[in-house]
Amino acid sequence: MTIRALPLLCVLVTLPGVAATLDLEGYAGDDGAISVQHQGETVDPYFALQALLLARQQGLDISRYTVPWASWLAPRQKPDGTFDRFCRHANAWAPCKTADADDALLALWLRFLEKDPDRLAQDPAWKKSHEAARRSLARLEDKGRGIYMVSPVYLHGLFMDNLEVWSYRPAHAGVQTPKFPSFGAAIQETFWDPGQMRYHVSTQLEQRAAHPAFYPDAVAQIFPILMGFPHVPGDGKAWYRQWMERHRSEWLAQVKTDFAWGLIAITALEQGDPASARCWLREALPARHGMHWTVTDEVVAQVLRARAVRPAAPSERCS
């Protein structure tokens, strides 16, 4: 599962001058590690970075976690600048899987470090890690398409990954050429299917023949709205409404079998659709801290609470 980061602009409903504070009890350990799930045995740097960046973008105070998390992750960066996923063994964290996708993870890490420019300028470990990540991301440039590849091993491009890299402005220059002067336009040209009026999730031809599923196929269609991508055909609000008409019930049911997909509730709020955010709370909160709830969903729940968004009433129609 891969879910991606987003530039969101709503203002939290809190006391004047007081930012709500992110609380990751059960997810963040004393050592700085942040697990994917509550009391979890797995750290995926992608999810931790996604959660922290989302919380910060939405106005939550993440200062309690910023330095401990960076201090935990930076020494675990591989010599090529990439990161593994980690599993807990006998109270110690050890690499257990490669990253789901290097390009998106590297872009998130670079964004995260650059959110504290003073620390980045003064901390040698941060500077070293930032430079290694920057070089590693540059190696994934696909100048033949004007996009980024997943990793040095998997030489295809993913639509949602590229949208996340697109959200990191410095990455644009790496793939811009006279043939592809705009990274965003290259993403649109590569993944948009005008015949089917939908986005393909990958440059892999075999993927296009696969039976569509909620993830990645349906999620890929709303991801440009989530990211504020300006190349969605027609009107973005109309695209969002069409997606909700087709997939709202399916989305709200995901928490029973897959993951809660709280990021879409944030998108709903951004699109002036608080009813769908309330429905998500009603359907997803009973699964809070369970196997279908990630640290990103926890951030979403805390953002909605800070904005005084409450779960839909039992009588409210959510299907």
What does this structure look like?
- This protein has 3 domains: 20-139, Glycosyltransferase (Alpha/alpha barrel); 142-194, no CATH class; 211-319, no CATH class.
- 46% of the residues lie in helices and 7% in strands.
- It contains 14 helices and 7 strands.
- Helix 3 (102-114) runs parallel beside helix 6 (159-166).
- The longest helix has 18 residues, at 236-253.
- It is globular and about 55 Å long.
- Residues 1-17 have low confidence and may be disordered.
What features would you highlight for this structure?
single chain; about 325 residues; two-stranded antiparallel sheet; globular; disordered N terminus
Please give a quick description of this structure.
With 319 residues, the protein is mainly alpha-helical. It has helices at 45-57, 63-73, 102-114, 117-122, 124-138, 159-166, 172-175, 183-191, 205-208, 214-227, 236-253, 263-270, 274-284, 295-306, and strands spanning 42-43, 84-89, 92-98, 141-142, 147-148, 192-193, 198-199. The chain folds into three domains: 20-139, Glycosyltransferase, CATH 1.50.10; 142-194, no CATH class; 211-319, no CATH class.
Alpha-carbon distance between the two ends: 24 Å
Provide the succession of SSEs. EHHEEHHHEEHHHEEHHHHHH
Largest sheet: 3 strands, antiparallel
CATH architecture of the largest domain: Alpha/alpha barrel
The gross shape turns out to be: globular
- Which spans of ≥5 residues are poorly predicted at pLDDT below 50? 1-17
Instruction: Name the CATH class of the largest domain.
Output: Mainly Alpha
The name of the CATH topology of the largest domain is Glycosyltransferase
Structural Rg: 19 Å
What would you call the structural class?
mainly alpha
